[in-house]
Amino acid sequence: MPLSPNLYQYLMGSLSLVVEANSSTRYMLINTPNTFHTVSPFLVQKLLTSCIGEIQNVKKLRSGDLLVQVDSKQASVISKLTHLGTFPVETSFHTTLNVSRGVLSNPDFIHVTEAEFLEELRDQNVCAARRINIRRDGRLIPTQHVVLTFQTPVLPKSIKAGYINCKLRPYIPNPLRCFKCQRYGHSQQSCRGIDPVCGKCAESGHETNVCPSDTFKCKNCSGPHAASSKSCPTWIFEKEVIAVKIKRNITFPEARQIVKDRTPTVGVSYSSIVQMQPKISNNTSEISSMQLPVSIPLSTLPSKFFTAPTATTSMKNNSPKKSKQPTPGTSKTDIVKNKKKLKPLENSSKKTLDAKHFLKSNTSSESDMELDSSSAYRNVTKSREKPKKPPDKNLHPVCIALQETYLKPADIAKIKRYSLVRKDNENESGRASGGVALLVSHDTPSSVITLHTNLQAVAVRVMFSNLVTICTLYLPPSTSVDERDLNRLVDELPTPFIILGDFNGHSPLWGSKNTNLRLRQIEEFVNTHSLCLLNNGEDTYFHQRSRTFHSLDLALCTPSLAPYFNFRVGVDLRDSDHFPIFLDRVNVGSNDAPRPTRYLFHRADWTNFALRALITRDMVESENLNEVVNLVTKTIISAADDSIPKSGLSFPNNRKPWWNKYCTDTNRDQRRAWNVFRRHPTSANQIAFQRAKSIARWARRKSERGYWIKFVSGINSSVTAKDMWDNVRRACGIYPEKRISCLRKNGQEVRNISDMVDVLAEAFASICSASNYTEPFLTHNNRTERVKLRFQTTKHISYNTDLTIFELHTALSVLKHTSPGPDEVTYSMLQHLSEHSLLNILYMFNRIWKEHVFPDCWKHAFIIPIPKPGKDPQDPLNYRPIALTSCMCKLFERIVNVRLVHILEKNEYISPFQSGFRKSRSTIDNLMSLETDIRVAFLKRNHLVSIFFDIYKAYDRTWRYGIMKNLYDLGFRGNLPIFVQNFLKQRFFRVRMGNTYSNIFCQEEGVPQGSVLSVTLFVLAINPILSVIPQTVQKNLYVDDLHISCYARNMQLIERQLQTAINNIVEWSNKSGFTISAQKTIGIHFCKRPLHLDPELLLSGVPIRFQDNYKFLGIVFDKHLTFLPHIASLRKRCLRSLNILRTLSNTSWGAAAHVCFVFIAALSGL
C-alpha cells in the first residue's frame, strides 16, 4: 500500500522530531543532480565517513541515489546535509523503510475512531490508523481490525492501548497488480505495456469491463479464472513473497527466492495435483485466505534419503533400489517420537489414498494415523551395528521424528520403505554431535520444506486428510538458544504444524519434577505463538545414573490440530534412554461398529405416548408381582415404540451435533448447482453455484454458532476441562472410540468381541467374589452370618407407611436424563406418563413395599466397560464398570432413600466426621479441619503426623450382611430394612459392548453399582470405622477417604497414639470385610523445623510410606503447608484450559470474546 502525499509529508516532518528521542535504525536517501554513477565509491565512502562517521550500510539504487542505513543521531546530521564534499546533495527519509505497519485486533476497540487512535497512541510512535471494513450487501461494515503505522522500522510486539496490552502482528498487504497488463509488481501508472490486456479472457486489445467473452482465462497462470482471482497460483505466490519479505525484513528478490525454493513444480507433487492445501487465515478480513504451497516433493527426487541443506552440506542424491511392496494387514499408522538407534519400520500397502480410507490397515486399529518421534542414532558412532527390525511388527508409523542421530554428512543411512530427511551436526573437533532426521513412509504423499535456520531442525509436509507440517527439533542442553531463532523457525513452517523434539527443558507443566533455565524460554515460545502442548505429564526420559525419570520431549502443535491428536508414551525404551512418544490421530470418520438403538426424544410425540402408555388398575392387581412389573414395562415400551422414533444400528456419516436438516438441504442444493455448472459452465450457472455455496456455508456457520451458544449458556463453575474438550471435539465431528482392540487373558490375546465381553464379565465378577476376603474375615463371616436377622414387626413406624403421590412427584421432578437399564424404560418416559398411570404405578410400588417382594427383572444390570485413563487397556481389570439398572427401580429407590437418609440424619446415626454425600457437607469440611490442625500445630511448635488410608475396592467388597447388621443394630424394623435386604440379594449383570452381550454373572458381594441406594448403604457400612479411633486422634472421613492425624511436641507420643489407631482400624477391617491397602496408604510429617526424622508406623506389619506431599480430596498438602505443589498442579491444569481457549479462538464458531470469557470464568470457578 503506497503512502499518501499527506501521510508522506507528515512523516517527513515528524521523523526529524523523533530521531533524537528514538535510537532505532533509520534509512536515508542521498541524491545529487549528477547521480553517483560517475563518482568513485572510495571517494563517496571517505566523504560519508568524514561527515557522519562510520555507517551501518550503504547501497546504490538503480536511480543513482544512495540508500544509507544509519542510527538516529546520524540521521539527524544527514537531514541537515546540503553538500557532500563539493557535490550538492539533497537528503530525505525513505518513504517505506522508516515505517512499519501492524494489525491490532480487539473487539473492545470496535467503536473507537481512527482519529482517537491517532491521538491516544501518538506517544507510542503511531502516525496513522486505518480501520479495515468489509462490504456486505453494498454497505461497509467496520471490523475489529485496525492497521496502525509506526514511525519505527521495526514493528513493536505490543502496545498499551488504554488499559489493554494489545499484541500486534505484521500487516501483509495484497500483491500490487497492474490493471493494464495484469502483471504483478507494478501499478498501471508505471506500466511499460502498450496494449491493454483483459483481466477476464487474457486477450489484448480491450478492457475488462467491455469483455464480450463468457469464459475465464488468467493472464498470469492461464487458469480458468479471472486475473483478479485470489485462488490464482501467481497471486498466492506473490502474497507469500510479501509475507516472507515483511516477516523476515529482507528484500523482495531474497523473499522471492525463498518462496520459489519451497514451491513445488506444478503437476509433480501430490499437493499440486489434488489441490488440497490447507488455507491460512490472513491478518485482516479484507485479505482473503491463501493456499500454502509445499516445497520439493520427495517422490520426485531420486534419493531414498535426504539431507537438509546447511552451511556446510547440501542435498545428496543416491540411486534408489527397488524394494518389495509392503504386505497388508498392519495395524495403524502414526507419528512417533523416540530416542533409540534407527530401525527400519515397515508400512502397509494401500490401493487407494482417499481421505476416508487413507493409510488404514486391514486389521483392527484404534486410530488411522500415528506419528513417532525418536532420537534414533544415540551412540551410533560407538557401535556400527546394522539396523534391526522393530520389536513391534504391527507398528507402521506414517512419520518418525528423530533427534540426536549422531551422523556425519558422509554417513549413508537407508531405511526400507521410508524416505529420510536429515540435518547433521558436527562439533569443533569434527565428531558427530546431535542431529535430527525425519522418516516418511513411501505410502504417504509428502514433500520436504527447506528451512533457513541455524537450529537443528528439519520439516516435511505430510498428507493426511489434509496437509500437515511435521518438524523435528533438537535443542542441546549445554547450548544457548536464541529466542529469535525459534520465532523464525515457526514463521517458516506452513500451518497447521506439529513440532516434535527434545527441548531439554524441565517444567511441572509437562511432567518434570524440577525446573531449569530453559523452562521460561519454552513457555514464552509456546505463549508467543499460541501453541498447544499435547504432553499428558508422563515421563519421557530415564536418567540411568540417578535412576530417575524426567519429561524432556515435547509435542507442540497449532490450536487447530489439538482436538485431533492424543498423546501417549511407550513403555519400551528400545535401547535408548528416551521412551517413544506416539501421537495417535483421533478417528474422525464414521464408526462402522453396530451400536444399540436408542430413542430420539427430541422427536417424540409425548401426547400420543401418554395416551398409549395407559397403566390401568387391572394391570397392577395381578397376584404375581413379577408379571405386574413386566406388563407395566411392556406397556410403556410399546407406547414408546409407537410415539418415539429410534436411531439406527450404525453411527451416521456426519456426526457433528450442530448438523441439522437445513444444513443437509443447503448442502444438497450446492451439489446440484455444482453438477449443473460442471455440465454447462455458463456465467449464470456459475453465479447460481456460488450463491448456493454461500448459502450452504452460511447455514453451517449459523448452526455451529447456535449449537455453541446453546452449550455456553448452560455451563457453570461445575464444568470441567474434560467436558469442554469433549464438546470441542464433538463440534469438530470427533467422538471417542468405544471399541476395545483386544484383551489379554492368561498371556493370550482375545480379539473376538463375543469372547472379550465374557473376559470382562469374569474379571468384574472376580472382583466382587467372596473368595477375595481375608482369612480372618472369612472366619468371622462364617460365625456371624449364622445369626438370622429378623426385621418383621407389628409396630406402626412412620418410615414403613405407604408411599405417597407427593413423594413420587418429588422424585420425578429431580430426575435427569440417563441411559436406561435392561428394560429400556427411561426417566423421560416416566415423567411424561399421565396422572392416572402414575397413580397405578404408585399402587404397584406399594404392593412391592408391603408384600416384601423384589421383582426379578430389577436385579439385572448392564455393565458398560470404560477404560481407566493411563492404564493398560489390554488388562481386563483396568476397566471401570458403569452399571445401567432399571430406571423404574431407581425411581423406587429414590423414594426409599429419602426416608432412610431422613431417619439417619434425624437420629444422628451417621458420625459427624463423615462428610460424604450429606446435605450441607462437602470436601471443604475435611480440608478445613486438616488445615486448621496443621496451623495449630505450627503455632504450638509441635509435630503433626497425618495418615491417609486407601481402602481397596471398597464398593465391590462391601459386606452385605454387615450393612443389614448395622441397620438392625440401629433399630430399623419393618418394610424399609426388608426392602433393602431384598434389594441386595442375588444381583446379576451382563457386560455390553455395542450389540454384543456377555453371559449372565452373579455379583456375590458389594453394593450394586449404579443404584441410588448404594451410596447411602456404603456410608452406613463404613460408618463404624470412626468409632474405633481413639479420641486423642483427629479423624475425618469422606465416603471412603479416611484420614487420621495427631500432633504433639513428643514424636514418640504421636507414634503410640497413631499406631494404636492403626491397629484398631486393621482389627475393624478384619471384621467388616474391607481391605486397607498398605502400598497406597501414605503418611506426611508436617513440621517447620528441619532435621526431624519421620515416625515409624506399621500397617499389618508393613511400614507406612511417608512423602513430602499428598493430594487429599483435590488439594495437595506439603509438609511445610506452603501449597506450592498444589499451585504447580493448578498451573498444569490451567494449561489444559488455555489449550481449549487457543483452540476455540481458531474456530469460526467459538472465537467470540464473550464465549471465551464464559469458558474461562467457568473453568476458574468465577
UniProtKB/TrEMBL annotation:
Comp. bias (Basic and acidic residues): 348-357, 382-395
Swiss-Prot/TrEMBL keywords: Nucleotidyltransferase, RNA-directed DNA polymerase, Transferase
Region spans: Disordered: 310-395
Keyword Membrane among UniProt keywords: no
Pfam families: Exo_endo_phos_2, RVT_1
Protein name (database record): Putative RNA-directed DNA polymerase from transposon X-element
Gene Ontology MF terms in the entry: nucleic acid binding; RNA-directed DNA polymerase activity; zinc ion binding
Top-level taxonomic group: Eukaryota
Reverse transcriptase domain segment(s): 847-1117
InterPro entries recorded: DNA/RNA_pol_sf, Endo/exonu/phosph_ase_sf, Endo/exonuclease/phosphatase, RdDP_mobile_element, RT_dom, Znf_CCHC_sf
